[in-house]
Amino acid sequence: MCNRYQLRTNMHSVCRELDVQPAFDFDLPDEVFPFSKAPVAVLNREGDRELRPMTFGMGKGGGRSSGRGPALNNTRIESREKWPWKKSFEKYRCVVPMTSFREPSYWGETEGTEVSFSATDDRLLLAAGIFSFRDGGGDDNAPAELSMSLIMRPALPFVMEHGHHRSPFFLRPGGVGAWLQRSARPPDESIEVLREYADDPPLVFQTDRQMAASWTKRRAAKLQSRDDQLAEIEQTGPLGID
User: Fold this and answer.
1) Considering the entire predicted model, what is its pTM?
2) Mean pLDDT, the chain, as a whole number?
3) Which residues contact residue 111 at a Cβ distance below 8 angstroms, ignoring those fewer than 6 apart?
4) How many domains does the chain have?
5) Residue whose C-alpha is closest to residue 171's, from 203, 124, 101
């Protein structure tokens, strides 16, 4: 699952690619980790696209957390109708721009390393996401904080080949508006949007670092997860939604 991604570009490029206006004055982070802030595209109350910061990782209890609990930074597409993601999948959708995403590799030529994947043409990758509201951490006067989670699918073939069995669910640019639609809708309608606009961008990889030697203790379990995922693809299709 994706716990780290990069956004190594500038605000102008992000806004141009997504056809959005920044809602706040904030700096783009080079690296995004759980609980850090990241720019996310949403529709505002007027139905206009805007770019605003959100915390990477939804809180507990359907998105409302009274403190720093586990960060639900990934949402399996197969779990879209389960708590705590169901409400957000129906009502609160977003698009998360990134230039690359980083995963541990457990097989193939990159095994034993952490690898970053980016588009071959250096364009932005547009990940489908959902968001929710986290309260002020016990301060009744603090404003609610928006937090988001990346929708995850069975790995893109290039990612699967290079050691990881899941990857973010990327959208083609033409599907951004359909995904962001502000009104509530049944999960099946959102699934059709994902199916129509799913992107399998040509990728390249960069080896970022060697993992600690203890990675070998996890390898057997990760290989089993890979094999289970490949078997599930036979039933659900490559997107995990058929």
Assistant:
1) 0.92
2) 91
3) 105, 163, 219
4) 1
5) 124
